[in-house]
Amino acid sequence: MANVIQDGDGSPRIILSEPIGSTVEVLLYGAQVVSWKNEKREEMLFTTNKALWKPGKPVRGGISICFPQFSNLGSMEQPGFVRNRMWSLDSSPSPLPPANNQSTVDLMLKSTDEDLKSWPHRFELRMRISLSAGKLTVIPRVRNTDSKAFSFTFALCNYLSVSDISEVRVEGLETLDYFDNLLQRERYTEQADAITFDGRFSWFCKRKLLELKTFVSAKIILNFKLFRALFSMLSIS
């Protein structure tokens, strides 16, 4: 089930819920997921206690979207501008595989003439956010509505609530390429089957940018920072 509410701070948001009791909250501003609670009402995402919504500024935490540029991999503002735009409900979403027993919302952002001043390409960016028992899935889709091709970088910055970082493992990165920030972003290939974190965690965060290929036919750049981790195929389970 999905409901749209207007909070006291003026931020419209969507509440997703499913039968066993887990919930997700998504701001229309930036299409940003700001809360994901499991059936025990435990918060799975981290947001700072100062995470108040203000026009023109995204909430720090949750899951934020970086597009059409991630980090400083380009000449425009970091990290892109779509997280500072008001999105709308997608009334005619593109067909996707059936979402049985899921609570789903489809959001859309279309480029404007004002956006063309920052990035001279017309586009539509769609996000499908689905909640099911023990699983949150986020699927981005980019459509080129311009008359010429363009390239972009994209990231989902995921702030996960972690009680003990030494218990965290990131799997599925073996054989993927990354850029080493301490060596002028020279390209290397990850060899470990799982990445764990100890006292060198902050060193690792600053050092590695991982480059993946995904189904949106673009380069996905995933940045590791405190309370951030990867979605497996853009989903958490």
UniProtKB/TrEMBL annotation:
Gene Ontology biological process terms, A to Z: carbohydrate metabolic process
Single annotated GO MF: carbohydrate binding
Superkingdom in the source lineage: Eukaryota
Membrane-crossing residue ranges in chain numbering: none
SUPFAM superfamilies: Galactose mutarotase-like (SSF74650)
Cellular compartments per GO CC: cytoplasm
Protein name as it appears in the record: Glucose-6-phosphate 1-epimerase
Organism: Sesamum latifolium
